[in-house]
Automatic annotation (TrEMBL):
The gene is pmgI_2. GO terms for molecular function: manganese ion binding; phosphoglycerate mutase activity. It catalyses: (2R)-2-phosphoglycerate = (2R)-3-phosphoglycerate. Pathway: Carbohydrate degradation; glycolysis; pyruvate from D-glyceraldehyde 3-phosphate: step 3/5. One of its GO terms (biological process) is glucose catabolic process. Residues 1-119 form the BPG-independent PGAM N-terminal domain. Its cofactor is Mn(2+). It comes from Salmonella enterica subsp. salamae. Its EC number is 5.4.2.12. It holds the Pfam family iPGM_N. This is phosphoglycerate mutase (2,3-diphosphoglycerate-independent). It is an enzyme of class 5 (isomerase). Signal peptide: none annotated. The keyword Manganese applies.
């Protein structure tokens, strides 16, 4: 075990790249806010700081006298997360040559394997390629000339579009999509209503591009 860090940092899905950068630096540079001799000691220290598993700050696991365990060229990284939404950002940081979410202090040439296809634009090995799903709800609506609106905040946008369409990135014919930014707060208990007012206003507006037969939010 070389490091521990909560998904709040490593698996952000709202383009909060400052968080992702902390996890990236932890793995590529072996640099974190804290250090512990063992993973258990690191977790216990995090709990003592009132950080639960999701919010554990970047912690290097390195006993006294041990060398750094930073990633190096030629290493293999197998990302075991099967859901795409929280895996995309940090995967792009590792894989995409044109990545611009933050200035990477170290770019590592890894043998990177995604468990599933997190996004079509991420060009790396996929252990389990996507199955081809026929006649999903969105596809059926399009075939029958019915319109549909997919609307969501950033946090769940992938769910009402990509996931609901069976892993299809592009909208179907007659499918309109609206993305509303989620509030920029540390945790949503600070703004539990999130962006529901704006979302409601968008749905209730009368200037839709077309009459919508189905709303999915």
């Amino acid at each position: 075990m070389a490091s521990i860090v909560g998904r709040y940092y490593a698996m952000d899905r709202d383009n909060r790249w400052d968080r992702v950068e902390k996890a990236y630096d932890l793995m590529t540079l072996a640099q974190g806010e804290f250090q512990a001799d063992t993973a258990v000691a690191g977790l216990q220290a995090a709990y003592a700081r009132d950080e639960n598993d999701e919010f554990v700050k970047a912690t290097v696991i390195r006993a006294e006298g041990q060398a750094d365990a930073a990633m190096e060229d030629g290493d293999t990284l197998i990302f075991m997360n099967f859901r795409a939404d929280r895996a995309r950002e940090i995967t792009r940081a590792f894989v995409n040559a044109d990545f611009d979410g933050f200035a990477r202090k170290k770019v590592v040439n890894l043998n990177f394997v995604m468990l599933t296809e997190y996004a079509a634009d991420i060009k790396t090995v996929v252990a389990y390629p996507p199955a081809s799903l026929a006649n999903t709800f969105g596809e059926w609506m399009a075939k029958n000339d019915k319109t549909q609106l997919r609307i969501s905040e950033t946090e769940k946008y992938a769910h009402v579009t990509f996931f609901f369409n069976g892993g299809v990135e592009e909208p179907f014919a007659g499918e309109e999509r609206i993305l509303i930014n989620s509030p920029k707060v540390a945790t949503y208990d600070l703004q539990p209503e999130m962006s529901s007012a704006e979302l409601t206003e968008k749905i209730g507006r009368g200037d839709r591009k077309r009459e919508v037969r189905h709303h999915h939010l």
